[in-house]
Amino acid sequence: LAKTTQPISMDSYEGQEVNITCSHNNIATNDYITWYQQFPSQGPRFIIQGYKTKVTNEVASLFIPADRKSSTLSLPRVSLSDTAVYYCLVGYGGATNKLIFGTGTLLAVQP
Amino acid sequence: DVKVTQSSRYLVKRTGEKVFLECVQDMDHENMFWYRQDPGLGLRLIYFSYDVKMKEKGDIPEGYSVSREKKERFSLILESASTNQTSMYLCASSFNLAGGLQKNEQFFGPGTRLTVL
């Protein structure tokens, strides 16, 4: 069964860089990789999306190796407000347009 | 700002009841989605709709149905609620731009926590 795999949880301290990896062995040629962030009592919200190599925006970077079987979300200099659950989303697509969210990684940032 | 609203934040129903969860979006999005979120399982797609009166099954459609009579509104229906449908239900919407469903940013509502007794 096609799926994505992420660590269940990670701990960090304020000011550190955090890297969260998602494994997606069955990614298809046309699939994109998207990361979402979810705070308690809220729905997820979009952070970043990429197809290959590296993508950077104002909040994060996304690194995707050449084989695209994994991806790494990088959060620079995290703060307490970055404590959240982070999900990677891969469309195991083709004609079915399947959307497979990972099980999420709880990032806990401590002072 | 895109706004996706869900009819209830919390809902308690009894086994066998018919349950309606309503979702409304105000950004004229073509796509709308219903997910359920459970601890350790992440978000799982129940149904999605890419146009009025159109629907597609997601990964776990059993026990659910949907209705989309207007572009801005997408309803999830539990015909006969069961205890294993106790969960957080999240609605989302997105444009239907080129690149497929997963290419387009999804905007989520706050969720409805449903408890079936």
Please outline the helices and strands.
The complex is a heterodimer of chains A (111) and B (117).
Chain A: E1 9-13, E2 18-23, E3 33-38, E4 45-50, E5 53-56, E6 61-64, E7 70-75, E8 84-90, E9 100-101, E10 105-110
Parallel strand pairs in A: 1-10
Antiparallel strand pairs in A: 2-7, 3-4, 3-8, 5-6, 6-7, 8-9, 8-10
Chain B: E1 4-6, E2 10-13, E3 19-25, E4 31-38, E5 42-49, E6 56-57, E7 65-70, E8 73-78, E9 87-94, E10 107-108, E11 112-116
Parallel strand pairs in B: 2-11
Antiparallel strand pairs in B: 1-3, 3-8, 4-5, 4-9, 5-6, 7-8, 9-10, 9-11
H and E string of chain B: EEEEEEEEEEE
> Which regions of chain A contain 5 or more consecutive residues with pLDDT less than 50?
none
| Beta-strand share of residues of chain A | over 45%
Count of β-strands of chain A: 10
Q: Please indicate the percent range of residues of chain B in DSSP E strands (runs of 2 or more).
A: over 45%
Q: What integer value in Å does the Rg of chain B equal?
A: 13 Å
Pattern of helices and strands of chain A: EEEEEEEEEE
- Tally the helices of chain A: 0
Task: Describe the structure in your own words.
The complex is a heterodimer of chains A (111) and B (117). With 111 residues, chain A is mainly β. In chain A, 0% of the residues lie in helices and 47% in strands. In chain A, the strands form 2 sheets. In chain A, strands 1, 3, 4, 8, 9 and 10 form a 6-stranded mixed β-sheet that branches. In chain A, strands 2-7-6-5 form a 4-stranded antiparallel β-sheet, with no helix packed on it. In chain A, a hairpin with a 4-residue loop joins strand 5 and strand 6. Chain A starts with 8 loop residues before the first strand and ends with a strand. Chain B has 117 residues and is mostly beta strands. In chain B, 0% of the residues lie in helices and 50% in strands. In chain B, the strands form 2 sheets. In chain B, strands 2, 4, 5, 6, 9, 10 and 11 form a 7-stranded mixed β-sheet that branches. In chain B, strands 1-3-8-7 form a 4-stranded antiparallel β-sheet, with no helix packed on it. In chain B, 38% of the residues are buried. The mean pLDDT of chain B is 93. The interface between A and B is medium-sized, with 25 and 27 residues.
